[in-house]
Structures are given as C-alpha cells and as structure tokens.
Amino acid sequence: MARNGKLSTGTLARGTITGLAVAQAGIVHLGYLARNRSDEEASEAQQARHEAELGRILFRALNQLKGTALKASQLLSMEAGLLPEGVRLQLARGFHQATPLNRALVHRTFRQEFSRDADQLFQRFDQQAFAAASLGQVHHAELHGGERVVVKLQYPGIATSIGVDMRMIRTLLQGLRLSTDLLPDSEIVERFMADIEYKLAEEVDYTHEADQLRWFGAHASLPGIFVPQPIASHSTRHVLTMQAVDGLHLDAWLATNPTQQARDRAGQLLFDWFLQSAFVWRRLHADPHPGNFLFLADGRIGVVDFGCTKTISSDFAAAAAKAWCALLRHGPGDDCEALRHNYIGLAMISPNLSVDEFERELMPALAPLQAWQIAPFRTSRFDFATRSPYPVFEATQQRKIARYMTGFRDEIPYFERTYLGLNHMLKALGAKVSTDNPWINQGASIW
C-alpha cells in the first residue's frame, strides 16, 4: 500500500480542490442540459449517467482531500434517501480507500501522546498496521505482562481538518444541488451535514470511543456478543488501546464453510442485538460495516469500532415501531390516515399534507422502500438468503420524495443505516432468523 507522509490541512490547497470540482460539475451539467434541451425530460438512462458523472467528480475531490472528507464520503453514501443513486454509489468507493502512516509518524504520535516510543510502552508492537481506514489505522501489540491488544492510531491533522472539510463538502453539495432536482430541500441537506460534522468530531476523540466501549460492555451485551474493553493506561484522545478480538471478518469466516446452523445462530445474534439496542438499551452501534464484526471460534461475535454511536429517545423508538406496525397492518384499499400520522410523528412530512395527497402522490413513491423495510416481520421466521436488494429509486420517485420530505428525526439516519447494514450481513450469511419480537409485529400493543 502507498505510504502517507502527511495529511494536507491547508485551506488554500483544499479549497482549490473543491473549486475545481464545482467548476467541473457545472461544465458537466451545462453539457447535459445542452444535449437534452430538446427533450421535455431526459430518459432515466441519461439521468443515471449524469448522476454517476457528478458522483465521480464529487468522489475524486473527497478522495483527494482524504481524512474526514473521505469519512464523510462513506457516511453520505449510506444515506439512501438523501442523494441520487448514481452519486451515492460513487461515494461508496470511499470504503475501499486506505493509506497507512509511515513508521516515522507512528513513532512521532507515541512521542506526542505518551512521551515514549511504542517499543517502550508495549512489550511488543507491530510496526505494520493490519487495518487502515479514513481516520486512523490499527496495530497488533502486547502489553508488558503478555496481554494481547490492538492499538488504534489517529492520522495527524485529522481533527483540525474537520471544519475546513465540511465547508468544502457543503460547497460541493450546493453545486450538485444546482445540477439536479433530486436532492431534498437545502435545509434538510444541511441538517445531514451538521450531524455528520458533529459525529466526526466525536469519532476523532478516542476518549469518547473508549467511553462507548465501556458503556456497551456494561449495559448492552447479549450472551454471544463480545465488546472489547479499552486499556485506559495506554489510551489518549488520539490513541486507543483495547483488548484484542481473535476472530475472522465475515468474508473470511464464510470461506471456512460454516454450517447452516452456525450461520443461523450468528444471524440471530446480530438481529437480536439490533432490536435490543434500538428498543431496550436505546443506543445504536451506528457503523454497520461488516469489517466491524468479528466471528470467533467459540461462536461469539466481537463488535469493534464504537466511534459512531447514537442514543435513541424513547419517543423515537415508539414512533419508529408504530410506523412499521402500521405498515404491517396496512392492506390494499385501507385508509392511509394511520400511516400519515406516523410519518408526521417521525417529522418526515408536513401535518398540512392531506391524506388524499399522501396516498395518491407519496405512498406510491415510498411503496418499494416500505415493503423492503417490513418484509422480515411478515413471517415469524425469515430466510435472509432470499432478501431482495435495497430498492433503487427512479428519478420520478426521488423527485416526489424530495418534494414532500420536510425533515426527519435526528435518530432516523442512524436507525436506517444500522438496519441496512444488518440486512446486508444477514443476506451474506444466508441466515434463517426468528423475527418474532414484542416491538414490531402486526398486533403489537407494547407502545
């Protein structure tokens, strides 16, 4: 892998990258308009190609900025209801970009944080990182006394680049908004961006992640779920040392050809942990990338990377469950008032939207997503091997959703992101899971 000498945090250099990207997007959009001005409306295929090109421009800029900009690219790509599909798919490439620190910067980090080298702080420290991501990298190590640990190092300059990067991304999205009518209202986009900025500030504070590890270890663990604990003496705001987790990532575990029983058990653990997190403990591990789940030889699942978590309010938990229960009970020809009321409760639509317009305009656009969300709960046991892909919205559907979406509860992006990540893992597992639960079912009365 390529070596990273230093993350450039200069406002001028990063502003130049952004300015060029906005200019490129404008030129591409003018060309698109010129090619299609004789048509009343461009075809879906033309629109998709245009979105993909805009997405490539946006991603190239964020990838050049790296650091928090690349992390923001990942987070934006997971918000299926925010960006056009072509743009979102391009931004998802950020999950595959990782540039580790060179050894000199590793040593400098330990000197700055502990006034000692890694070789003095640990009995053994592997200089070569075994994992690298947008904000930091992870090393194997061993404490004096023999305990095996992993050490997460933050890239220099990351924290100071957040404000600059988020201003750049806002500029890029403003330019994108001028190039398409598929984005929601600018105030909604800004709320997403403000939340991403807040969460990035949390993620670059490793003392926050250490607190989350301790909280989940004490309050939100099921038998079979292992949450590694931090080593306080070897952790700071920019370095996090925690217990090692001897497990395999999902793809590697599946390559061992586990039995269907083992797949089902793992899937049930993940499914139950999500429901308990959302509706009992009301705090989510909201970074559902498969790389954050490790499958242990004894059947347990280790969960790592608690930089992004979200506390769920009791009224949101109730509103989300009621909305899905209403969808389960809703049949063809049924009155949509209950569904409309629940969407208002989630702050997604205006109370002024009439039942007739909600049913006639918005419900058909949302129908594929609604069906996908509740499919596992229509039966007491669901085979995730048959799980359909997450629905892709056509441009006409996206426009209607963008037109009627007036806002969202703060918890919604995290809840939906976590649920989507869960479904991706259960699909990969091919797990058969019992979905019976007291919170989401056709006759639920707990709320």
Number of domains: 3
Oligomer: single chain
Number of strands: 13
Largest sheet: 5 strands, antiparallel
Taken in chain order, the helices and strands follow as HHHHHHEEEEHHHEEEHHEEEEHHHEHHE
Helical fraction equals 40-55%
- What is the distance, rounded to the nearest whole angstrom, between the alpha carbons of the first and last residues? 52 Å
Work out the radius of gyration: 23 Å
What does this molecule look like?
- With 447 residues, this protein is of the alpha+beta class.
- It folds into three domains: 11-97 and 158-184, no CATH class; 102-154 and 205-244, Phosphorylase Kinase, domain 1 (2-Layer Sandwich); 246-447, no CATH class.
- It is built from 16 helices and 13 strands.
- Strands 1, 2, 3, 4 and 6 form a five-stranded antiparallel beta sheet that branches. The chain has a four-stranded mixed beta sheet with strand order 5-10-9-7. Strands 8-11 form a two-stranded antiparallel ribbon.
- Strand 2 and strand 3 (136-142) form a beta hairpin.
- The relative contact order is 0.10.
- Residues 1-9 have low confidence and may be disordered.
What is the strand and helix layout of this fold?
Layout (H helix, E strand, L loop, with lengths): L10 H26 L7 H22 L1 H11 L7 H7 L11 H12 L3 H4 L2 E2 L5 E2 L3 E7 L5 E7 L3 H20 L8 H18 L2 H14 L5 E2 L12 E5 L3 E2 L1 H5 L5 H22 L1 E3 L7 E4 L4 E3 L5 E3 L2 H16 L7 H9 L9 H20 L6 E3 L11 H10 L7 H18 L2 E3 L13
Parallel strand pairs: 5-10
Antiparallel strand pairs: 1-3, 2-3, 3-4, 4-6, 7-9, 8-11, 9-10, 12-13
